[in-house]
Structures are given as C-alpha cells and as structure tokens.
Amino acid sequence: MIEALDVGEALLFSAACAHDDSCRVVTGDKRCVQALHQSADPVARTLAGQILCLEQIVRSFASSGLYEQVRQSVVRSPDVDTTINTIVFSRGLSTPKPTAIEALDSYIRKLRQQTGTLLAPGV
C-alpha cells in the first residue's frame, strides 16, 4: 500500500482497478494522485489515463456552456476548493471566461507534469 493514500482513496483505486477501462476515478485530492505516480505500485500503470481531478471536471463544465453557473457556484461557495476559488475565479463574479479557462488549463498542465499519465487525456 502507498503510504500517502488514505483508506478511502486506496479503496477507490482498488475498485477502479477491478473494472475495465471504462471506469474512472474522480478526486479532488491531487496529493494522492502525485503519490500514486511516484510509487512503483502496479496500480499506477493500471489507472493510467483513468483519473479525473476536480479542475478537469470544472473546466469541462465551464467550457460546455455552463460557465455562468459554474462561476456563480464557485464564487458563492469559497470554502469548497481554495485553488479554484482564489486562482481560477480570482476576480469573483467579474472573472471572464477566457481568464478562468486559461487558469484551469495552466493548473491541469502543471498537474499532468506532476502525475505522469494518470490523468484522463482530453479533459
């Protein structure tokens, strides 16, 4: 078992490994994905391209025509996710869509560098 993973994440990863490639793991815990990448655990190979981080989900919704709803929800709930609230929507309800999308893309690129092939591609 990978030390940096808590029991819940270990169960999620284990359940995902038991399914075919159509199973995805959605997590807001970037540290656990980084720890999985850094480990030599075979689970990392099995889950390559199968993990979605919160920023990927938010980006998908925001770019699909739901930007206004996403922005309002995040700005009205600042304690939900510090990164998304303070970096992506740093100008609150005045944050333009291109600014938020670029911030999300930048964050996701950085996370991909830290997690290898674990994050789902194309999101």
From TrEMBL:
Protein name as catalogued: Uncharacterized protein
